[in-house]
What does this fold into?
Amino acid sequence: MSDLVIDKNSRPLGASDLKVAPIAYGMWRFAGATGHQAEIDANAKVETALEAGITLFDTADVYGLDSNAPFGAAEELFGHVLKARPALRDQMVIASKGGIIPGTPYDSSAKYLREACEASLKRLQIETIDLYQVHRPDVLTHPAELADTLQTLRKEGKIREYGLSNVTAHQIAALQAHLDHPMATQQPELSALAIEPVTDGTLDLCMATDMTPLAWSPLAGGRLMLHASEAPTSQLADVITTLDTLADKHSASRTAIALAFVLAHPSKPIPIIGSQTPARIADAMSALDVTLSRQDWYAVYEAALGAPLP
Ligand SMILES: NC(=O)c1ccc[n+]([C@@H]2O[C@H](COP(=O)([O-])OP(=O)(O)OC[C@H]3O[C@@H](n4cnc5c(N)ncnc54)[C@H](OP(=O)(O)O)[C@@H]3O)[C@@H](O)[C@H]2O)c1
It folds into this structure.
């Protein structure tokens, strides 16, 4: 029985020239506090991630709103970090997203997405966004229009590569049919609690057409870190108990096992971790040292399914 050895090397995003480490840092929770201290904290988080070997940084124009900060706050804060230390830019692959307008809620029309991308560039204080992602599907935009917008932004040098997030396999295929330049990434929710992309066609399509899956909320937004007795559902309690059993077996943290579960899929998903605690950001990299057996992986999968596989 062969074990699931995790590739620790940097890898390209899809068929593109962008190379990134196997774990990424996400900035959904990055903004919130304001003022000088916020910038000091932001610097520390970015520095810790880089020192740990992380190279892909994932933000979005809408990040910050959940922490009651204004639209654009997370990008703006990241922009201050980049402006203050220009040498950081060359060590990073910067990803952002657009297409959500709170209250609308989605717009991927040519006019809106272009304005959103240009506004992101301004807030980030950079010339080019390495990976621009459409945050959620706007079913009112024809894929031909979206393909044209993304390819035009790329030709203009405003973005280097593009991808989608939270879409169905059919929506991915519909866009692919209109693209001359391939999409580099998909960003679904994927964790030991959110296993749908394994069977809904998303990861299969990534493997079939060479796109890199970026797994959002790989610790289920912290729910996988609860004590089993605090878990609101028996499914979550089972997953946590299984992760802990494997953590004991592999002398690893529960975080490492949960991330290894994502990393071990053959589509080579890149978990985007979202902790705001520098020690936890650094600890996440220990997942790369975990080698799960097939039996370990399927034990987590069955716990997440809530039923044994036939
Ligand atoms: N495309 C989309 O629609 C979408 C949606 C959601 C997220 N995302 C992306 O995914 C990224 C990650 O999302 P996420 O923040 O939900 O990721 P996550 O890594 O699953 O969860 C991070 C949360 O778990 C908490 N946590 C509790 N115990 C922890 C431990 N032992 N180790 C690490 N974290 C622990 C963290 O708290 P502390 O901060 O206190 O450590 C933080 O609040 C986002 O930043 C964003 O880039 C994308």
